[in-house]
Amino acid sequence: MRTKRLKKLLDSLSEIDGFLITSPPNIFWLTGFSGSSGVALVTPERRIFITDFRYQEQSAEEVKGWEVVIAKKRLFDEFPQLGVFSDGFKLGFEPDHLTFDGYQRLREVLPKAEVTPIKGKVEGLKSIKDEGEIQLMKETAKIADEAFSEVLSLIHAGAKEIELATELDYRMKKKGAAKASFETIVASGWRAALPHGLPSEKEIKSGEMIIFDFGANYRGYCSDCTRTVFLGEPDERGREIYGLVRRAQRAGLEGASAGVKASELDGMARKLIEEAGYGTNFGHSLGHGVGVSVHEVPKVSALSEENLREGMVVTIEPGVYIPNWGGVRIEDMVVIRRDGCEILTSLTKDFVQL
Ligand SMILES: [Mn+2]
User: Fold this and answer.
1) At the N or C end, where does the chain have fewer CB atoms within 10 A?
2) Cα–ligand 1 centroid distance for 318 (angstroms)
3) What is the whole-number distance in angstroms between the Cα of residue 146 and the centre of ligand 1?
4) Structural domains in the chain?
5) C-alpha radius of gyration, the chain, whole number
6) In sequence order, what are the beta bridge partners of 332?
7) What is the pLDDT of residues 14-56, one digit of tens each?
8) How far is the CA of 224 from the centre of ligand 1 (A)?
9) Cis omega before residue 234 (within 30°)?
10) SS3 (DSSP) at 150
11) From the CA of 113, how far away is ligand 1's center (Å)?
12) pLDDT tens digits, residue range 252-307?
């Protein structure tokens, strides 16, 4: 799998002599290295991975088919000795991931190379998942789904958001996740109007909705899912808004297919919410790519210029947020297929009243 990825990367880099990858998720995707300190250098002839003493054994285990160099000082200090950089060598780097300090260091150690930014290269390739990655993401989603189903039975009046978030994290780890793929969101009642309400000490009261937005990180891949459930009988608005968000989410699922513009898909779901008069209460984009990071390309937003392509994994997550009342969001992670999409989340989207 990783050999294919490398070939695709090289095929797309004909205008330069070599490419430097400094983003840890991009390095993981290309090399298999899961540590935090390393850089990867790719040329048509060589593939070199540089890390430090702390990762000597780990890199030997994880990075196959690469020359592994253990740096004695700073990682870039190894560059002049690699026998790669002839005068005028054109080296591409990732402008979104190399620090200014790193850039200056690079210029110092390679004064005669031409150092040039190449944006979004690995991100673009990474957005199309192979079947092995999709399988892993299904397993990741399943871990999160199962943990969430268990936590539902722990919800009661007086339970604190932070307790439920902790239970969810704990159960995902017990089921094999290395960690949560992002900080678990649990937001109840008026706090559900905060699209990214981190769990607080607030106690859940009867009649309130609770938004759970959570995911697992399993073998390097992330999942992302949101469900909104109600404790006891909600007010009239609760059912109305839930029904609206559910219809919008369904429109997104029905519209998701290879060849569709990401911006159009955003519009298909947003239109329903706007027509119901809640357009200004849905202030975020419909979704985003997911993979080795929880937020990847493509963005599924009105501003996106990308087309959905077969093998992309994206979220579809409309929401309506009303200050001093609360909110509802429903999110699934889907794989884009030729004639539609495959949902990776298996949790119900029926109205759940506990
Ligand atoms: Mn999401």
Assistant:
1) N
2) 10
3) 18
4) 2-126 (3.40.350.10), 131-343 (3.90.230.10)
5) 23
6) 316
7) 899 999 999 999 999 999 999 999 999 999 999 999 999 999 9
8) 5
9) no
10) helix
11) 40
12) 999 999 999 999 999 999 999 999 999 999 999 999 999 999 999 999 999 999 99
